[in-house]
Design brief:
This protein is α+β, with helices and mostly antiparallel strands. It has three helices and four strands. Helix content is 36%, strand content 20%.
Length: 101
């Protein structure tokens, strides 16, 4: 489900106030990090992540790899942080109502 420009703009605005929920360190993207990110995205459709200095990946590389593993969309990459979006299958989650074009 590719996001439109208006939807990306909406998600970027929502992500502006978020704190990172996942930190990627010197071990890069491990199975444990993928599991943690998957569990987080079941409760929060929008997730901000940060890549720490010891990591061998850039934020863009980490965002693409993690989004691929989680079947999520990369919303933005700025500096050492990135934001991912995935619709949650859970019913008791506050779902983000995306703008329709």
């Amino acid at each position: 489900m590719p996001l439109t420009k208006k939807q990306i703009k909406q998600l970027r605005a929502l992500a502006n106030t978020l704190s990172p929920m996942l930190y990627i360190g010197k071990n890069d993207i491990t199975d444990a990090a993928i599991k943690q990110a998957d569990e987080t995205m079941q409760y929060h459709e929008l997730m901000k992540c940060a890549v720490q200095d010891g990591s061998g990946l850039s934020a863009k590389e980490a965002a693409i790899k993690l989004a691929e593993k989680l079947k999520a969309e990369v919303v933005q990459v700025i500096g050492n942080r990135f934001v991912l979006f995935r619709v949650s299958p859970r019913e008791n989650t506050n779902h983000i109502m995306l703008i329709k074009e």
